[in-house]
Each structure stands twice: as structure tokens, then as C-alpha cells.
């Protein structure tokens, strides 16, 4: 009997304690007395981002705008009249939050809102052109205006189911390795070659293929990049294919010395002359020089007013390399011989045109006329 009474009293005490705690909780969560007439002076919003730091999606001002857009106004209203469940319901409709909590604080005359963001890993652009965030835990968030965050992009021939399975596993493998955490900036899915990774630095495409052994392939790429790229150059290869077991297949961006590709794209070994061509001894061709047109020759006009006198076109002679000899001056013409007068004659020699008669001849002529 005593044991039964003891058990009964213990049960009653536990129930009384639970009832008391429930009453205390409701008294604290619902403003009474002085708080019943207090109006909201401010709204405090605390956003918890994964890893700390600034919010990835909406700042506190954006949260207030979201509430205002749905007709929820908090400032100036009495604290006991605010519908906290509606506040939480509106914010839970925003898909970027995984936890939402709202309560009033009569002591500070404010409404307190606590939010925890989901952790996005990458952005998916599927074959239909739609974009989604893929979050931790294989969840998805539709991308909308107002959301902006810097994340790797997965695009190409893929859909959401493939993005949340194979591509998600690849991203998780990259995140767990500190060497590759920020190594790649883009993931492209090709219908034939499978998954292709694009590094943030460099232009070499890393072909991962379709088999999901991502960790093994990343290990091969790390060995290749540390052993070969420092010697050949960061952009020496167009692509590196890691989809073959136990080997790495790379294609040189500038071709392989001694080989060429035929019409089918297969490598063909060149001959010795083609592989090592001899340098040509012929002078390099010079670019043609622009020659200005020759000035037109002005032909002298006929003094009688006729047509201008033209001359035959004469091809220019090449310049002579021998030194020119000084030309001799032309000899002067000999003076004309004057005939001597005969004795006993009065005739005088006819003077040359334009020449004056000699004085001795004039005197003899005058003497003959006087006689």
C-alpha cells in the first residue's frame, strides 16, 4: 500500500511540475501587464550563414521588404497584436531558409527574427535553360531575381536528377579536398565525353568522363599537373582525358613535333624532310611599295596655234653603271672667206648680210666716181 501511494504521489508531482512549466512558458511568450500596451519600435533580424560571414541571399533589409510585400507591417503596431505565426509562415515560404523563428521582446519594444540560411554548393543550368541552386543535402532552390552569390556553375546536357546525384557527388569530393576546394570554376556535361571541368586559372579542359570514380581521377590530375605543367606550361594542352584507367591522355595545343593529323583526325608520322624542314635560303618576300604616278608631260604648243606637238614614247633606259665621260665642247664654225677684188675693176665685193663695208673700199669707190 505504501509503495502504491508513493508511486501515485510521484506521478501527481511530475504532472504538477509539467503544468507549472507550461504556464511559465506561456506567460513569457505572451506579453502581459506593461507589455500589452507597448508598440513595436524596431525589428531586429539576425541571419545565420553557414560558415559565418555575410548572408548569401537576402540581407536584413531584403527580409523586411519580403514581409512588406506580403502585407506584414511590424513597426508601430502593439506587440500583443502582432501575428508571429504569420511572420514565420511568410519567411518559411522563402526557400533559402531552413529555420525561421520570430518572437517579441517587451523590454526592448522590438520584434526579434532569427533565420538560418541553407548552404548552396553550386548552380545548375539545365538543358531547358532553367537555373537552380543545389544545396547541401541534395536540395534545390529556384534562382530568382534578388538572389546573388558566387558559386561554381554546372551546365550542358544535364537535368536536376543528374545534378543532384553524379554532379553532387563530384562537388562533394572537390569540397572535401583542400587542394581542389576552389580549383575549378565551371562544370560542363557533354553528351559524349561526360563531365568536363574548367579550372579557374588556365584554359585546359579536364575530361572526367561518365564513370563516378571521381577521387581516383582527381588524384591522376593532381599528379599530372604537378609533374608536367611546370615543364610544358599551364596552357600547353588543349585537354587532358582522365577517363581511361591507369593512364592520362593529353592533346598538345600546338601539335606534336614529327606528327600531323590526317583528314580523319588521326595522328600520322611525318617524313624526315617534313618533320625537320630545312630553312629556305631565298630572301624573304618584301611587301610591294606604293609608287606614285609619274607627272604628265606638258607638250609644247605649235607657235601657229595648231595642236600641241607630241613626241614618241621612249622607254626609259636602265641607268649605266660606267662613269660618264665629260662631253667635249662643239667646235666653232670657221669664218667665211671674203673674195679679193681684181685690179682695174670698179666692182666691190658684196658684203655679207648684216656686215658693214670696209672703209678702204668706200674711199676707192668715191674716187672712181669723181674721175
Describe this structure in words.
The chain is an alpha/beta fold and 371 residues long. The longest helix is centred in the first third of the chain and has 28 residues. It contains eight helices and 14 strands. Among the domains are: 87 residues, membrane protein fhac (Ubiquitin-like (UB roll), Roll), CATH 3.10.20.310; 138 residues, Cell division protein FtsQ/DivIB (Rossmann fold). It has a nine-stranded mixed sheet with strand order 6-5-4-7-8-9-10-11-12, with helices on one face.
What is the element layout, followed by pairings?
Elements: H1 2-29, E1 42-48, H2 60-69, H3 84-92, E2 97-105, E3 110-117, E4 120-125, E5 131-135, E6 139-142, E7 153-156, H4 160-176, E8 184-190, E9 194-199, E10 205-209, H5 214-227, H6 229-232, E11 237-241, E12 249-252, E13 259-261, E14 267-269, H7 272-275, H8 359-370
Parallel strand pairs: 1-3, 4-7, 7-8, 10-11
Antiparallel strand pairs: 2-3, 4-5, 5-6, 8-9, 9-10, 11-12, 13-14
Poorly predicted sequence stretches spanning 5 or more consecutive residues: 303-316, 342-362
What percent of residues are in strands?
Answer: 15-25%
Biggest sheet strand order reads: 6-5-4-7-8-9-10-11-12
Count of strand segments: 14
- Determine the structural class based on helices, strands and strand pairing: alpha/beta
State the CATH topology of the domain at 120-257.
Answer: Rossmann fold
Total helical elements: 8
In angstroms, what separates the terminal alpha carbons?
215 Å
Whole-number average pLDDT? 78
Instruction: Spell out the helices and strands N to C.
Output: HEHHEEEEEEHEEEHHEEEEHH
Rounded to the nearest angstrom, the radius of gyration is 55 Å
Shape: elongated
CATH architecture of the domain at 120-257: 3-Layer(aba) Sandwich
CATH superfamily of the domain at 120-257: Cell division protein FtsQ/DivIB
Major pleated sheet = 9 strands, mixed
Helix content: 25-40%
CATH uppermost class of the domain at 120-257:
Alpha Beta
Keywords: Membrane, Transmembrane, Transmembrane helix
Transmembrane segments: 12-28
Region (Disordered): 271-371
Amino acid at each position: 500500500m505504501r509503495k502504491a501511494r508513493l508511486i501515485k504521489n510521484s506521478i501527481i508531482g511530475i504532472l504538477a511540475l509539467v503544468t507549472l512549466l507550461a504556464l511559465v512558458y506561456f506567460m513569457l511568450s505572451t506579453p502581459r501587464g506593461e507589455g500589452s500596451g507597448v508598440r513595436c519600435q524596431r525589428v531586429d533580424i539576425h541571419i545565420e550563414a553557414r560558415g559565418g560571414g555575410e548572408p548569401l541571399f537576402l540581407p536584413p533589409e531584403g527580409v523586411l521588404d519580403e514581409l512588406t510585400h506580403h502585407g506584414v507591417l511590424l513597426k508601430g503596431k502593439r506587440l500583443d497584436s502582432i501575428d508571429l505565426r504569420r511572420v514565420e509562415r511568410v519567411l518559411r515560404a522563402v526557400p533559402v531558409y531552413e529555420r525561421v523563428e520570430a518572437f517579441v521582446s517587451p523590454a526592448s519594444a522590438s520584434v526579434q527574427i532569427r533565420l538560418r540560411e541553407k548552404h548552396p554548393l553550386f548552380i545548375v543550368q539545365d538543358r531547358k535553360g532553367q537555373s537552380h541552386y543545389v544545396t547541401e543535402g541534395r536540395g534545390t532552390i529556384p534562382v530568382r531575381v534578388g538572389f546573388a552569390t558566387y558559386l561554381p556553375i554546372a551546365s550542358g546536357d544535364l537535368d536536376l536528377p543528374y545534378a543532384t546525384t553524379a554532379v553532387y557527388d563530384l562537388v562533394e569530393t572537390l569540397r572535401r579536398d583542400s587542394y581542389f576546394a576552389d580549383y575549378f570554376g565551371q562544370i560542363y556535361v557533354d553528351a559524349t565525353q561526360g563531365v568536363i571541368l574548367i579550372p579557374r586559372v588556365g584554359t585546359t579542359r579536364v575530361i572526367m568522363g561518365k564513370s563516378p570514380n571521381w577521387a581516383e581521377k582527381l588524384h591522376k590530375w593532381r599528379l599530372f599537373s604537378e609533374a608536367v605543367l611546370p615543364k610544358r606550361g599551364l596552357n600547353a594542352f588543349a585537354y587532358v582525358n582522365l577517363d581511361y584507367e591507369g593512364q592520362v591522355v593529353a592533346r598538345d595545343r600546338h601539335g606534336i613535333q614529327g606528327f600531323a593529323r590526317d583528314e580523319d583526325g588521326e595522328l600520322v608520322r611525318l617524313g624526315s624532310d617534313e618533320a625537320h624542314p630545312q630553312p629556305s635560303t631565298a630572301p624573304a618576300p618584301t611587301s610591294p611599295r606604293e609608287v606614285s604616278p609619274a607627272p604628265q608631260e606638258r607638250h609644247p604648243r605649235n607657235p601657229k596655234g595648231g595642236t600641241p606637238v607630241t613626241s614618241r614614247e621612249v622607254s626609259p633606259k636602265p641607268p649605266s653603271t660606267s662613269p660618264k665621260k665629260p662631253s667635249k665642247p662643239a667646235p666653232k664654225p670657221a669664218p667665211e672667206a671674203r673674195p679679193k677684188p681684181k685690179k682695174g675693176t670698179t666692182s666691190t665685193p658684196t658684203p655679207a648680210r648684216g656686215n658693214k663695208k670696209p672703209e678702204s673700199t668706200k674711199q676707192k669707190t668715191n674716187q672712181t666716181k669723181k674721175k
